[in-house]
# Entry
Amino acid sequence: MNLRKLSDITVLKNGTIFDPHSGDRYEGDIYIKNGKIFDLGNIEIPSEAEIIDCKNKVITHGFCDLHVHFREPGREDKESLKTGSMAALSGGFTSVCVMPNTNPAIDSPESVNFILKKAEDCPIKIYPIGAVTKSQKGKELTEMGLMYEAGVVAFSDDGFPIQDASIMRSALEYSTLVDIPVINHAEDMFLRDNGLVNEGPMSTKLGLRGNPELAESIMVHRDLELAKYTSAKLHVPHVSTKKSIQLIRSSKQLNKCVSAEVTPHHLYFTHDDLRSYDTNLKVAPPIRSETDRESLIEAIKDGTIDCIATDHAPHTIEDKETTFDCASYGMIGLESCFGVVNKVLVKKERIISIEALIELLTVKPRKIMGFETNLFKRGVSAEITVIDPDEKWQFTKQSVKSNSFNSPFLGEYLIGKIDLTISCGNVGIN
# Structure
């Protein structure tokens, strides 16, 4: 990807503009002046403008991912804020929310300030999510109010599910004072019991310990009940099972403070793909059955799922090139995201329109996190993604801008490619 500073006056010309905030779609141009939206539509182009031809491309809001793992501080060899930003930009993302499971964890105002200070040098907007408990040990709440004042946009112990219901209740109650979501990795670790893959006939065939869907759905049910009791905002990450979907669907009829996300890999793969023992498919929660995958797709169609998030989780070669039981959980996902979900949801299964998909990647995650959703408003800092929705391309190591290469999508042919991304006064061209 070629990254450079945006010209003082830049015009994106001849594209199809889709504004997911208003729902408007029209042919036109976008005039950017000093990094901000100046005008849209059929505009008079200044002679000194840099013109970027977007013919046959869709121009839309920059994507927002509310669930990524950048490994700074502690494991910058896996991913730093800077390299994670480049991966995000390449994938069309102009805003990301970073989870707190770093070393040390983002569990204090000082650690929040560290992230925000380092983010100033990055080409995208990076928002820190603060830990719910100190050192993410699930025992003692962090100073949630002070962390909010420092700049966190949500609270989560992601990767370390909060097992103690009283701790989760307290976290939800405190979160109502600042009105931001609590995100809990929904797994009962006692039921999970070191399970590696989805429990069922396939886990038996593979000879790998199973992780039952019950481990997720029981935790989802508990958290939904606690959210209703406390009137707090609850976001359910990386939903993977049919039962969880049923519970969330029922809960949302009564509680408007509940939201949920699904990952591209849970939409694309099933546990049958694990026959290869590809450790890049070892994720938490695990890749589930075709029935579960179909339920996730139906939940996107009917609005039970609010947004798509990558759960981008970089790991070293040593973390993954080992036996399945010893391999680390997680895969990278920023660079491949749009090509995967566009292929599955729009092109292959024709479940939703390209416009609906863009909403799942732009206005809907921003709404959950309380961010500005009207990104085509004049005077707003330009966060723009330009897409070729029909381009078929192969995802290879050359496509990866992350520090890590742990992706099961390597070698896969995807549909829909990010042409360029504008963010924070920068333009990244793939």
Notes: The chain has two domains: 2-59+379-401+410-429, 62-369.
